[in-house]
Target: Methylmalonyl-CoA epimerase
Amino acid sequence: MLGRLNHVALAVPDLAAAMAAYRDTLGARLSAPQALPEHGVTVVFVDVGNTKIELLEPLGEASPIAAFLEKNPSGGMHHVCYEVDDILAARDHLKQSGARVLGDGNPKIGAHGKPVLFLHPKDFFGTLVELEQA
Amino acid sequence: MLGRLNHVALAVPDLAAAMAAYRDTLGARLSAPQALPEHGVTVVFVDVGNTKIELLEPLGEASPIAAFLEKNPSGGMHHVCYEVDDILAARDHLKQSGARVLGDGNPKIGAHGKPVLFLHPKDFFGTLVELEQA
Model:
């Protein structure tokens, strides 16, 4: 079921400063910042060739990463996203296995325009797992 | 400078339970556990095709992930590892840029038998960054 790693999401309190660190200090290739108001973040993609690193800064009042940054004011590793071929089949298998799907259990359209689900971090040893239909 | 994502390391308090969750619940392909006493961990590799997820359980008295698991008893995302072509050139560039290299600043031989460095998470917005010479 579990396919390739689509991205690793890193929450940062200051996207401009994080862009400078990744571009100038680490020598990484970055996208321009993209505001995604419907997802409550501004994102910069770091292209590392085999996958993407996403630098996320909160956007708007109800950002899904605001609580994380309150607990981790410097920022930190927020979630990993794996690809699956069939998100409804994946969801059904996960629920049968006892894993908790966040929200109402139905896929939402994620930041890449594809259906996504998030799984409860307590079921995966403290790691927030996103699944995206490839 | 920054090359491909070599792995994402997830610290877990109970490797057998984590293996069951990744294999049975997420349907992932796992390696057998490998004890690496000189690195203070037992590791299981999760093959996701384009990169690796490493599940790390502490091994021995002075495990480098023990303090993390004291702060995060359920486990969590521990570090990301990027490949570089020349780790000494990378180290010199990082130091010139003001980034802090952990330890004495010299590469050590990492868990894959290659030279590695760790960078201070405060310089990268709460994310512990490992660099490995490819």
Q: What stands out?
A: Chain B has a mean pLDDT of 96. Residues 51 and 75 of chain B are 21 Å apart (CA to CA).
